[in-house]
Amino acid sequence: MTESESAAVPVDAAAYREAMSRLASAVHLITTDGPGGRAGFTASAVCSVSDAPPTLLVCINRTSSAYAALTQNGTLCVNTLGEGHETVAGLFGGRTPVDERFAAGTWRRLRSGALALTDALVSFDCRIVGRHAVGSHDVLYCAVEAVAAS
User: Fold this and answer.
1) How far apart are alpha carbons 119 and 84 in whole angstroms?
2) Which CATH class is domain 26-149?
3) Any transmembrane segments, and where (predicted)?
4) Which of 42, 44, 92, 111 is the most exposed place for a label (fewest CB within 10 A)?
């Protein structure tokens, strides 16, 4: 490798976001409800960390309207969306008021207090067990306490 090949080239944030938008990944609704309030947002930055114990990773921007409720409640549900969920995904992905977001779809309350979309491909009922700040986001480590597939 030559010196010019190994030199780090700074990547513009907008170019990085555009490149990341081209990656195929599932879309999820992350929901929470409890003393910190009801909230939800769409996320694609979700993945498995471990199966022993079952743990998911969820990333959230600290400026998100859902951030305070999510971190105060300490619980969340990862609802994996499928075909036919475009409308609810759009509501949770924009600036739609919380009540209007949850007016779409049919929901059921989980043991944690979070809300599961009844026709999600799968719903993971989770407790937040760790948090790590990286740039503008927090990486949440979530212990999976229950799983429901439709």
Assistant:
1) 10
2) mainly beta
3) none
4) 111
